[in-house]
């Protein structure tokens, strides 16, 4: 059966019956030009869970991850029109908003009459912007976890029933926005295992599958969307799955598809306190009890390792080889502003404990953030070098809607709100720091990114090691990129402090950087000279940025339609 909306859309005689699948779940491409994603192609977990609950109800559902398939906007639209499902649901990251807009508008222009909904962290926290811009084309936005809501929405839409009274959705009505009350919490253990439609695709690229042992995080870091996302519904912010079921799911993937490398997508593998740690202990013990030889990676906070150092051995015995820990800054005052609730000393001690037992660590780090000073840049850089950590340096803290830091910066009078369809919110920064950031970005856009575009396939090959510990080549590649960025950053700091620079000095620095880039290029078979502009061009841009200091924010444009 068709929905009222579908009939509304067509003029008399124009209605075309919509076909199977009943629901098409789409991840729009972040890049609009058909460029391969710049992250490890990961299975779209959110859509996989939604698919699982709908299929459990007997619904015909397809997932179309246009991002990891590197589709253009046009190809994405064509595919959606070909499938012509009565319901299309988009899962949206902030930087995919421009793609969402193009796709949805094109679908409606081309007379797609089905029901369009969307969900995810960005739609949940930035829904007023989406409704304002696309409320005429998109029927509803699902707020928070989607399993229960999408199931009910699908039932109503496909049977032509009224859907506007459903909990957990927002929609536009005439010129106002209607926000229904949030839905109750999903009981994770009642959910079926995630559907694995993209498993072989992702295994082919990265050699690992993703898994979730829990949802949410007990942390309250001010820059993180997770807290706000989880807080829109009643109940605790962190919820574990039954540990035996988690291992059952992993074992099923091992038995059926020989998957032995897993990445935990949990924002934090540990829950709060002793009980929260015991959840991970149980998973590790269950893996060990079954004699499964897994290679595992996950995200966690340092304080959980410090609170009970015996956890390190347990993690190791379960197969954890690598943990990503958000260090963010080496400055305790900045960590306080971030509400990290731990000091750099504490975070370091957790890294050391893990490393001493042979568990490697990857650090999340935001060297450019609202509290960055020339001094903090120097200290952070020294810290990263001392610890042998190689994060990307040309990225700044992004202020997402609904995060505590957004309120904080607004209260400080430093927030420059931007429509998320156009870019990230900006915040005022001292001009000399903003000039350094703009210069780092210049190197990234002109040199590092084009090299990555060409070398992406090779980068994935390097990452496709049989275990996380065997990714030595990738570590040296990360070190190569870091060497280039840190060399420029050090020069920029020095020029700012001394004022002693001119075009010739900048050009000289760029020539050194270009020779470092040659080495990086060789590692990923990229003929660097053929993909980047002459060094004088980049040198001139950086010189001008440093001399004229034209910016007072870490301003960034979305470039996805150009890259
Ligand atoms: C894997 C991952 C990625 C992958 C995503 C791959 C993929 N296809 O899913 C990639 C590498 C692309 C990625 C990129 C980034 N990420 Co990320 N990522 C994650 C991570 C670790 C897991 C996501 C996941 O699997 N969640 C589990 C599933 C079940 O939840 P879900 O996706 O939210 O889906 C549920 C609901 O949202 C909803 N839903 C989702 N889609 C839809 C669609 C419909 C139709 C409906 C009805 C419902 C619905 O229902 C789902 C089931 O309940 C999360 C942490 C986390 N666990 O959430 C961070 C996280 C989401 N990422 C984060 C960040 C900061 C980033 C980056 C900005 C990093 C960077 N500096 O570049 C980018 C850009 C994202 C952006 N906003 O623009 C932040 C928040 C981002 C934000 N505010 O949007 C998080 C929370 C991590 C953190 N703690 O900081 N990320
Ligand atoms: S620990 Fe990680 S997931 Fe948890 S609130 Fe902080 S940044 Fe977010």
Q: Brief description of this entry?
A:
The protein has 563 residues and is α/β, with parallel strands linked by helices.
Features:
563 residues; alpha/beta; Rossmann fold; TIM Barrel; 3 domains; five-stranded parallel β-sheet; 48% helix; globular; binds cobalamin; binds iron/sulfur cluster
Describe this structure in words.
The longest helix is centred in the C-terminal third of the chain and has 33 residues, at 431-463. A hairpin with a 2-residue loop joins strand 6 and strand 7. The model is unreliable at 9-17 (pLDDT under 50). The chain is globular. The strands form 4 sheets. The protein has a 7-stranded mixed β-sheet, with helices on both faces. A 5-stranded parallel β-sheet has the order 8-11-12-13-14. Strands 9-10 form a two-stranded antiparallel ribbon. The protein has helices at residues 4-9, 45-56, 73-83, 97-109, 121-125, 127-134, 147-158, 199-206, 225-231, 243-257, 273-289, 302-307, 311-318, 332-337, 344-356, 374-387, 404-411, 431-463, 472-498, 503-523, 528-531, 535-548; strands at residues 23-27, 61-65, 87-91, 115-119, 140-142, 169-173, 176-179, 209-211, 214-215, 239-240, 261-264, 295-300, 320-328, 360-365, 415-416, 426-427. By secondary structure, it is an alpha/beta fold. It folds into 3 domains: 14-179, Rossmann fold (3-Layer(aba) Sandwich); 207-365, Alpha-Beta Barrel (TIM Barrel), CATH 3.20.20.70; 371-397 and 429-563, no CATH class. It contains 22 helices and 16 strands. It binds cobalamin and iron/sulfur cluster. Residues 25, 27, 39, 42, 44-46, 49-50, 89-91, 93-95, 117-122, 142, 145-147, 150, 212, 224-226, 265-267, 395, 398, 400 line the site of cobalamin.
């Amino acid at each position: 059966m068709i929905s009222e909306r579908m009939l509304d859309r067509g003029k008399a005689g124009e209605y075309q019956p919509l076909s199977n699948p009943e629901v098409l779940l789409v991840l729009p491409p972040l890049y609009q030009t058909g460029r391969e994603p710049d992250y490890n192609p990961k299975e779209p977990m959110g859509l996989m869970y939604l698919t699982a609950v709908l299929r459990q109800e007997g619904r015909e559902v397809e997932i179309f991850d246009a991002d990891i398939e590197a589709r253009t906007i046009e190809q994405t639209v064509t595919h959606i029109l070909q499938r012509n499902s009565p319901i299309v649901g988009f899962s949206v990251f902030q930087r995919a908003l421009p793609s969402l807009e193009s796709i949805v508008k094109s679908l409606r222009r081309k007379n797609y009459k089905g029901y369009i909904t969307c969900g995810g962290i960005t739609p949940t926290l930035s829904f007023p912007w989406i409704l304002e811009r696309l409320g005429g084309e998109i029927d509803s936005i699902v707020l928070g976890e989607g399993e229960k809501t999408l199931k009910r929405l699908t039932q109503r839409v496909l049977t032509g029933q009224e859907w506007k009274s459903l909990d957990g959705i927002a929609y536009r009505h005439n010129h106002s926005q209607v926000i229904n009350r949030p839905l109750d919490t999903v009981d994770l253990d009642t959910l079926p295992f995630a559907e694995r439609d993209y498993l072989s695709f992702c295994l082919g690229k990265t050699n690992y599958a993703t898994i979730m042992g829990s949802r949410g995080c007990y942390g309250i870091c001010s820059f993180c969307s997770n807290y706000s996302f989880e807080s829109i519904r009643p109940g605790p912010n962190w919820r574990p799955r039954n540990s035996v079921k988690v291992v059952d799911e992993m074992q099923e993937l091992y038995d059926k598809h020989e998957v032995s490398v897993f990445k935990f997508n949990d924002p934090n593998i540990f829950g709060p306190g002793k009980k929260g740690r015991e959840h991970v202990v149980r998973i590790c013990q269950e893996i060990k009890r079954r004699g499964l030889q897994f290679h595992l990676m996950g995200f966690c906070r340092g304080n959980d390792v410090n609170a009970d150092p015996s956890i390190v051995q347990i993690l190791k015995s379960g197969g954890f080889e690598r943990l990503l820990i958000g260090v963010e800054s080496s400055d305790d005052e900045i960590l306080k502003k971030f509400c990290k609730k731990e000091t750099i000393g504490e975070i370091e001690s957790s890294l050391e404990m893990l490393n001493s037992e042979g568990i490697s660590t990857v650090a999340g780090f935001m060297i450019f953030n609202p509290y960055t000073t020339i001094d903090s840049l120097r200290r952070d850089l020294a810290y990263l070098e001392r610890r042998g950590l190689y994060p990307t340096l040309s990225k700044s803290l992004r202020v997402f809607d609904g995060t505590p830091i957004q309120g904080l910066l607004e209260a400080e009078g430093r927030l420059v709100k931007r429509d998320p369809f156009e870019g990230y919110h900006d915040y005022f920064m001292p001009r000399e720091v903003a000039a350094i950031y703009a210069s780092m970005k210049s190197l990234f856009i002109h040199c590092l990114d084009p090299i990555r575009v060409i070398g992406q396939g090779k980068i994935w090959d390097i990452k496709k090691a049989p275990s996380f510990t065997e990714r030595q080549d990738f570590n040296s590649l990360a070190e190569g990129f870091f060497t280039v960025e840190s060399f420029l950053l050090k020069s920029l700091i020095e020029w700012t402090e001394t004022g002693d620079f001119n075009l010739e000095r900048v050009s000289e620095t760029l020539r050194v950087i270009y020779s470092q880039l040659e080495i990086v290029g060789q590692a990923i078979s990229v003929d660097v000279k053929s993909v980047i502009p002459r060094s004088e061009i980049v040198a001139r841009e950086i010189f001008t940025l440093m001399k004229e200091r034209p910016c007072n924010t870490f301003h960034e444009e979305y470039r996805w339609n150009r890259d």
